[in-house]
Amino acid sequence: MRLDKYLKVSRLIKRRTVAKEIADQGRIRINGNAAKAGSNVTVGDELHIQFGNRLVTVEVTEIKETSKKEEASSMYKVVKEEAVDQGSF
Length: 89
Description:
The chain has two helices and five strands; from the N terminus they run ααβββββ. By secondary structure, the protein is an alpha+beta fold.
């Protein structure tokens, strides 16, 4: 599944266009490698997402084409959440 679509369906990011913008800015990594919006996401991948001065690391546990609000958080597991300096990602 495309990275931008996964982020929207899992509700890590509310809108797919915002997910695309963040990925294109280089603020998302998949297994340590820079990711674009069209990058493929598979179960077991580790996503590092920079939200402002927070770095959130999640592990992909499930991939669905659609999900309800209650089910969305089951698609990933938060591994680590930390504060970072702006230029250190």
